[in-house]
Each structure stands twice: as structure tokens, then as C-alpha cells.
Amino acid sequence: MKQHSSGADWRQPAREAAEAARRSGAKALSEMAAKATLLAYGVATPRGVRVARPGDATAAAFKGLKAPLVAKVLTREGAHKSDFGGVRLNLASATEVAEALSAIRAAAVEAGVQADGFLVEEQAAPGVELALGGIVDPRFGPCVMVGLGGVFVEIFEDAAFRVCPIDEAAARAMLAELKAAPILTGARGRAGVDMDALVAALVAFGGPNGVMMALDGEAAEIDVNPLIAGPAGAVAADARIFLSARPAAPTEPAPPLDWKATRAAFRPLFRPESIAILGASSTGGGFGNEVISHSLAFGYMGSITPIHPKAAEIQGLKTAPSLAALDGPVDFAYVAIGADAALEALGAASGKARFVQVMSSGFGESEEGAGKEQRLLETAQAGGFRLIGPNCLGVHSPRGGLTFVGGADPTPGGIGVISQSGGLAVDVILRGGAHGLKFSAVTTLGNSADLTPADLLEHHFTDPETEVIGLYLEDVRDGRRFVQRLKEHGGEKPVVMLVGGRTDAGGRAAASHTGALAADARLWSGIERQTGAVVVDTLDEFLNALLVMQARGGGKGRPTRRVALFGNGGGSSVLAADAFAREGLETPRLSAPTLARLEALGLPPGTGFANPVDTPAGTLRHRDGAVAGEILDILVGEEALDAIILHVNLPVFITSINQRVDVIGGLVREATRIGREGAGVPRIVLVLRSDGTEAADARRRADRRTALGAGIPVFDELPEAAKALGALARWEAAAKK
Fold first, then answer.
1. Model confidence pLDDT, tens digit, residues 164-203
2. In sequence order, what are the residues at sequence separation of 6 or more whose Cβ sits closer than 8 angstroms to the Cβ of residue 133?
């Protein structure tokens, strides 16, 4: 199967076919034109001929075609032929073809479908019927799907998606994801299909020089159903290409990331030496006042100039009457005034700021404000500043001393967060900080009129102080560049994404099976698999994944897969083993030498060693609590283990009448001792379970601080730890590829 070669005109065959269809007034390519386009890029199709009328079906017309034959109606609208009887199979002669065409024409008339001739072609050999499809997503551009085909594509919804372009490895991964994958490789004695030919068809369809990329800007949806795969190849037995309403130029890939320039460009934002505040009140009650107060308390050392038309001083700081009145540009201007006032103030202040964050609402988040948002963007472009927002709360930069949140931990760290929700960013900063997250920066983007998640993603990839990246997304905007950067750099730093609205299919009026199946959840799942970024479902999972990524140093230097559970769990340990299994993590039976060493400790009855290693309170008090370290040392020596989850039910010890031995403290001390050993030993994770009482919660807070100081992540429940380690394992596996 020969794929179309790259070059200046490699898109030409596909785009010429689309243009010809448009000139004729069609909304879709005819099946013949669609198949010719597929064939031009390397997707095999049956041999066939066009017949204008049933009476033209003669033996001479089909000379060279091998029976059995298929007869189909050709339409200009891309209607589902099987829905109204527009196709007939297993035709052996010209007479049978003529009779079939007459019946097809009658069925089309009854269904109100305009026939544009007929197609007679060789019937593809039997095989596994797959659906190969493409859509043009408004955010990510061309996307490719493969799934179980025929009538089953929407019944079983067994499909895998990727953003184009894909390569051979991605095509194989897509096929492996399918529940129907065993059928392809030969299940229950059946012959397998030609996987190389099937992979080649996927790449010819969705690869860098494939059909979807050639029709970028021309096609809205493409449906190849069925793509029949057999031992001798893969053939597109049916194909429909639906044209976009208006043709557009294809989107070219983003240029290589300029690391040095990107780092320099964002320095004024995250380490501003001068700040102007629009919206600080002389009475101290405005949002701008909060940014001043919080940043000063946070340790900001640069100059702050409140902008106020009358007051000479605000919060002890000298004011300026307007942004335009400043002597020179400030690094960062924070705007917390009404939308109209913001437009006026910024329009008069060209060249007076490098970055402007517009906290104000009243822009593109509502239909009425869309025009104002466009004018705001034009003002930014004319004024020479980069715009953050509008409709966002602020920037949090511990190293720069800038924040919009009171009471935040000023300790700088390595987690960079990009959030399209200001309120959720506050949760991330405060709740995440309480659980031990240390930030390089948290940026709220709101409507992302200018700076998009892709821009901030590029910054955090190039920023040496950012080690882990987290994103809360609602509208990616520049999705093509966003996915490209994730594919290029996602294995270098862990990326965790919490995506809002993934259960909504976006109201797409789908013409194809592919479009009907392309819900956001499937697209994001495909993006996770092709980029190595990890997608999570809840805020808690987001924070916990960032926490375990932050503490990812050490370990065995391989993807986390096999774990041991050790603690006073009982039934909770068994349930936890199930939770870890759901995340693709194993709790294997310990080796015979390890079991022998554990049994040689002579621990009290009721202790279990099968993994989970179940140690009741009495066992953990054994030998004045020294047994915890002895067990951990033995488990650390188990070469097969990648992680040890040490879990403690705090109330069992806090409420006990036997307080002579500080079991909890001993467990935490031993865990931190092992954790500090770093590389070459299993990763240590601590779970401190509380019953919500003040005593248990206070103990957990204290022990959490101790463990975090040793780089050990601490979780409240075992299923939370399972989810977090599962996220780490998915990233590790992708990064190793």
C-alpha cells in the first residue's frame, strides 16, 4: 500500500476533489470521488465503474471486474445507503446488476434521495469489519477514529480516537485499545488480519501526509465503514467525505519551541519588578486592594503603583491618576474595574505594561460581551502588551512574590498550574498547599482571549523551576498547538489535566458514525494516550496526582506496577487491593525468601503476609514498635516491588489505653528513613486514615509535615493513593516509550 509522498503539492489531489464537488453544488464527495481520494493517499479500495442508468448495466461495462459485484447508488449528500436500500451485494452477472440498480433507483425515489448515478464494484473479500473515520474538532482540528465497524460501530461504541497526525506506533496503540482487538489477531482459532496493512491504512488516513491532513479545512467528517480487514490486506468497502461549510486554509504545525526566548518572555509576569493596580479603592475594599495586601504579605519586593484618579496614596503607596500617566512600562498591570472602564484605560495606555491581567467580567463569557472581548484583544495588540484573561482572578508566583490569595504558603516549589477557573485555582493553592504542594506558579486564564493554555504550557516546559505541570481546562482555544507541544515534550515533565465538560458531546450535529461517537471524553482519552499527559476526573484526583508527581524522585527507575500494602487495615486492605487493581497496579504475592524472612520475625497471631501485609495494632506494638522498621526493611529488599503503601488507621492507636509505644510516630519515622534512601528502593507512600475527630486530624497534620519533609506523599485514604499512583504509572509508562 503506497502512501502519498510529501511535497509542496501533496494535498492537491484531495483538495481538487473537494473543490470539484463544491462547484457541482454537492455537500459531500460521491463515493467514487471519495474512494479515489483515499486511494491517492494509500488506502486500498475495490475496483469499480460508474453507471449512469440501470439500462447501462451490460457485460461490456463491467469487463475486467471479478464477481461477486456490489451495486450502490451515488448521491451528492452522502446519505446512508443501507438505511433506504441503496446497496445490493453478491451480484454475479450483468443481468443481476441491472435488476439491482432498478430496485435501488426505486428505493432512492421513495426515500427522497437524489441519485447521481450508480457505482458497481468488486465485492471485498470477507473479513473483520472496522470503521475508520475522521472529524474536524473545532479545538484540535483533524482527528482520526478506528473501531468495530458495520452496524456495530454505534451499538458497541468500541472505538479509539487520536488527534492527527498519527504515526505507526499510535495506529498500533489505537488497535490494541479496542475490545475487539483479539478478533484482529485471531481469537478462538480464527485467522488474524494483516496487521501491517491495517496499520498502513490508518497512517495513510490520519498520518502526516494522510487524507485527514490533506483535507484540513476542506472536510468536516469522513466515514469509511466498513474498512474490511483480512489476512491479505485492508480495503475501504464504503466511504463518504462530507465537506465543510466554508473551505479554509490548512493549519500548519507550530514552529519549534524557542526555549530561551520563551523563558525570557514570561519573566516579567512571574518575577515582576513593577506592578500597577487598577481597581484599588482609597477605602480599602476593592479587589485591587486584596492583590496589594496579599502580595506584600507574600514578600513582594518590587514597586507597586495603585491607579486612582483622585487619591494621592493608597495603603501607603503613591498612586498615579491613570495607567497612561506612568513614566514607563510596568511589568504587570492588574485590572479590576468594569469592562468599559478597562477598555478605556487600556486603550489610552499603549506601551505602559508588558503583561495585563483583566480580572473584570463582562466580556466573552457572555454573548453580549463578545464584541468587547474582541476590542480588548485588539487593544492589547495595539498597545504592545500580552493579555491574561479577561474574567480571571490573578497570578500566584511564590518566587516573584505576587499573589491574589491570602494565607497561601510562600514556599516556592516545582508545580506549575494553569487554570481557566479562578475559583478552582484558589482551591488548588490553599487545599493543595495544605496537602504539601509547592508551586512555581499558578496562573488563571479565564476567557483566554490572548494568552492560551498552550502559551503557558510552553512557558512551563521551558521553565527550569517547573518540574510538574497541572492544567484545569474548559476551552483549550489553540488546541492544535496544545496537543503538538504535549506530544513533543510531554515525556520530559509530568502533565496532569483536569478537563471540565468532558461528558458533553458538544452538541455536534454529526453526519457520520465518527462524529456521533466523538464525545469529549473519547477525544481526551486519546490525547492522554498519544501525549503521555494524564487526565483525571476530580479536583481531589488532580491534587493527589500532582502530589505524587512532586515526590516522584527515587523509586526503581522503572514504571510503577507492583505494590505492597502494609498496615493495620483488615478489610480496608482487601478493598484497597481492588482499588489498586482497577488502576492497573498489581499487589503480587511476595516471594518465598521474603515470606520466610517475615515469618521469622515471630509476630503475633492474626498477622498476614500474603500482600496485603496485614499487621493489627498488637503486631505493630510488638518489640516496642521496632517491628515496623523490620517489616519495611524486608519489603524494601523485595526486588519485584515498585512501591510500598504504608497505611495507618490513626484512631485505633489514638483511642487505645496502651499509649506506652508511639506506634504512629515509629511508622512515620521508619517510612521517612526508607524514603530518604532515594533511588534503588521501592517508592514509599503514606496513608494516614482519620475518623474526623480533632485528635486524629491533628495527628495526621503533624505526621504529614514530617513525611512531606522527606519527600513522601501522604494521602487520606487508600483509594486516593491508588488513583494517584495509577496516574504516576501512566505517565511513567508513556515517558519510557
1. 999 999 999 999 999 889 989 887 767 889 999 999 999 9
2. 144, 145, 146, 147, 221, 222, 223, 224, 225, 512, 513, 514, 515
